[in-house]
Amino acid sequence: MFKNEALTDFTIESNRAKFREALTTLDSKIKSGIVAKPMIGGKAISCSAKITSTDPSDPSIVVGTVEHAGAAEAEEALKVLNAAALEWRNVPFQKRAEILKKAGNIMREKKFEINALICREAGKPWAEADGDTAEAIDFCDYYAEEMMRLGPPQKMGTVPGEDNIYFYQPRGVGVIISPWNFPFAITCGMAVAALVTGNTVAIKPSDQTALIAHKLVEILLEAGFPGNTMALLPGRGSVVGANMVRSPNVDFICFTGSREVGLDIIQAASVVHPGQRNVKKVIAEMGGKNAAIIDEDADLDEAIKGVLHSAFGYAGQKCSACSRAIVVGEIYETFVERLSNAASDLMVGAAKEPSTFLPPVIDLASQKRLLGQIADAEKELKLAFKGKVPAVGNFVPATIFRDVPTTHWIWTEELFGPVIAVTKAKSFDQALEFANNSPYALTGGVFSRSPVNLDKARRDFRVGNLYINRKQTGALVYRQPFGGFKMSGVGSKAGGPDYLIQFMEPRTITENTMRKGFAPQS
Length: 522
Prior knowledge:
This protein is an alpha/beta fold. Helices cover about 40% and strands about 20% of the residues. It has helices at about 15-30, 70-90, 95-110, 110-120, 125-150, 185-195, 210-225, 235-245, 260-270, 300-310, 330-345, 365-380, 410, 430-435, 450-460, and strands at about 35, 40, 45, 50-55, 60-65, 155, 160-170, 175, 200-205, 230, 250-255, 280-285, 290-295, 320-330, 380-385, 400, 420-425, 440, 445, 465-470, 485, 490, 505-510. The protein has an eight-stranded mixed β-sheet, sandwiched between helices. The chain has a seven-stranded mixed β-sheet with strand order 15-16-17-14-13-19-20, sandwiched between helices. Helix 4 (about 110-120) crosses helix 5. The longest helix has 25 residues, at about 125-150. The radius of gyration is 24 Å and the shape is globular. The model has no long low-confidence stretch (mean pLDDT about 95).
């Protein structure tokens, strides 16, 4: 029976000591030089193109060097994966699930080592890094159990003289294009879902967190996945990713990232190229512009805490983050004041410091973009709060805008940073109208004590994941399968009972059992 991996309790000194030890060990490796290379057929491939991966908390520190694959390496990887696809699909599903379970166990053993790398390369504070690793373990355990549920053929109907069975086959060769904000969990979840269902995969990680993806592939190989079932291809998205998405040798694409890139992938995958054997399946999660409704009768202590964590956790760099707050009625001024006061108490600092809540954003480009957007918005909107940040690192201050018109770009566009827009609604019905008026439909939050309004929210707040009287981030595998609709994505929810089915095709075989005898065996 599936059970979520327990999050590490950092109030226990021994756990803090383990994390510090892992960071110290990683520091030694950083000084010696960490190198991640593309991997094809289980072997590292040397490439001349290189980038450096830096620590967001201090960009002068190079965490490691990543060698970039190009179009030639991508083509070679797809040849290897296609050649291996038939053999891997015929491996019994029980064996594939067993390997995946082992991968989860290895991650448990190396949890602090993985956490440390996430902390340094992705800039995630201790608890956020630990949650990332725990979610990856959950994906391994849950998808292994799901494969055991879905793997056996099902007998359909009870018609005399006829035998009908329903079963699934893998789609073939897939491309996994993963983001930097959950660099271990999301990369793992997409990749192992494809592998356990019998597909082979090419993994194209984000440039900012390719070292973490490399660590994941090492663990999957250690667990027993054959080297020819996966390829790691760090490289420019416009070269490696674009070529594979358009290749006739690819059967499906699994993507998490921006709406712009996701829609381009969907469009590119719809074009059939000479030699292509299948209509390509696209599974895409593309972000959100998520709202929280604070009703007039809400418990403000819970509302402030929930919105604060949802808006500023990991510097707002989550597709599930709360970036709009809609406050009903006369509590508006009180809410804005209390939220601003609470934001002023957030601990801002380097991700490796155990007290840090608000870390830097992922890179200098994101910092420059966000600071520019905040400056532009300050010219047009009323600022309720803007925090202070360290001089060193890719930091962006926690920022709260008040009285924001629902037509303003701060209200409608996903910024992916620690910025929240607050507005007032005359009624709960109007609040629902404001919340739903978005091209996205990923997460939503409601803080209310009214049974009538909570029923309205359940019925009419149209998002993939609705959270009532709690934060709207931190979805757990199995308990809160994650994913949205509208422009937030296409495909079934990650960590849910329908997810693996997307990586397979159903088949039915019908046999007339009234035959008279068997032909002799040759």
